[in-house]
Amino acid sequence: xxxxTVFVVVSVFNEAPVLRxxxxxxxxLYPHVVVVDDGSTDESLKTVEGxxxxxxxxxxxxxxxxxxxxxxxxxxxxxAALLVTFDGDGQHDPRDIEKLLTPIRSGEAxxxxxxRFLEKGSRLPLFRRLLLQGGILFTRLSTGLPITDTHNGxxxxxxxxxxxxxxxxxxxxxxxxxxxxxxxEKLRYREVPVTIRYTSYSLHKGQSTWxxxxxxxxxxxxxxxx
Length: 226
Fold this sequence. Notes:
The protein starts with 5 loop residues before the first strand and ends with a helix. Helix 1 links the parallel strand 1 (about 5-10) and strand 2. The protein is of the alpha/beta class. It has helices at about 20-25, 65-75, 95-105, 125-145, 160, 175-185, 200-205, 210-225, and strands spanning about 5-10, 35-40, 55-60, 80-85, 110-115, 155-160, 190-195. It is globular and about 45 Å long.
């Protein structure tokens, strides 16, 4: 099981200042990396030229959900047995990936979800914590799943589970849509404690109050249309 091919899908939008370092760190542990540039207006892809990775590009910015869907589909075509989603802003630690893969390899789960709230010590600023807690509460109420972290981009999937992931919400609301998919498809999941690297750069790139309201609005509209 440890020899199963792992593909790491990295969604990117204007990450030129940090992207090369993120990808080089990933490559030191996992050789199959797919970078999906979601219509960046900077030189993100140029910063990773020459690295042994797959690069895909959306001509226009469609959102993280769409970028991940593109990357997952590509990795599946390339024969991925295990898939990992990873943010391009440097906030994730590649060493956490193995912790997410372990319960999938053992057959304990089909999906592993990174959570920054399972262990104490998170240095998350208070305002950002309140925003995230609002998203967690909404997800718990709408799905009934006892999730502790709804907007953590570090996740792992078995190939079978990944084949059932079809994000229809292109932007950040895909993170909440994922839990609807877990519930609908009855996928066995496990949350795993992971580290988030909070820097001035990653915090600046993070979600704002407006982003939270936009996500909630998208989810409510989707629920109404159902």
